[in-house]
Amino acid sequence: MARLKNKTMDEIITRWATDLSKYQKEFKDQAAQVAQWDRLLVENGERIQKLYLDTFEAEKGSREIERQLVGIESQQEELETWLDRYEGEVESMFSKQIGTGEQLAGPDQEREKTYKLAEKITERLDDMGRDLSKMIKEINDISGTLNKGNKPDDPLSQIVRVLNSHLAQLQWIDTNAAALQAKVAAAQKERSTIGNHYGGPEQDNVDSFYRSYIGRK
Contact at 8 Å (CB) between 113 and 89? Predict the structure, then answer.
């Protein structure tokens, strides 16, 4: 009230109008700042929600990849077991034949069993090749999606690096699967060579099986 003492009505009204204009401006500035903060909160909330969903999908994809990796490794061990069995039977068959001086025309039943075993190995190798191709495509798709718009140090980029590590493991498995196929082919070639050395009408069966195997590659 001291400020109004000895003031005319016009001076008092002018002072009130000036203060009101000042406070209106301050209120508008504060309201604009609050509105900006509110927009940032909404935008950050949407980003956090999107990050959560992306992370959830990435973790889900990572678990699926882990599951399929275990399956592929199990298939590789199974293939190695089949191949060892196949090589053992081939060596046993030839050692018996060479040791007794018999021609290759003898144990047709044992040879047919060995052929079927080799065919099973080839089928498993083909299945593994298809599984590997599918898995590599899935990992590339997931990595490409997660890499869009992400910074190198954010959680999704770290997940991508883990997936890339999984991809390297798959490529290693693929290389070893190809090596197993090469072993089967080498075994068939060795069989053909021994058959040519000893002769016998069943050599046509050996050549036919080898051509069938090569045709599926």
Answer: yes
| CA–CA gap between residue 71 and residue 68 (Å, rounded) | 5
Give, to the nearest 10 degrees, the angle between helix 155-198 and helix 108-147.
Answer: 160
Which residue ranges form the domains of the chain, and what is each CATH number? Answer: 58-216 (1.20.1050)
Residues 147 and 161: beta-carbon distance below 8 Å: no
Q: Which residue reads 């069993």 in tokens?
A: 113
Rounded Cα–Cα distance for residues 159 and 144 (Å): 12
SS3 79: helix
Note the pLDDT tens digit of each residue in 37-72. 999 999 999 989 888 888 888 788 778 777 877 877
**Rg of the chain's alpha carbons, rounded to an integer?**
38
Measure the CA–CA gap between 108 and 103, rounded to whole angstroms: 11
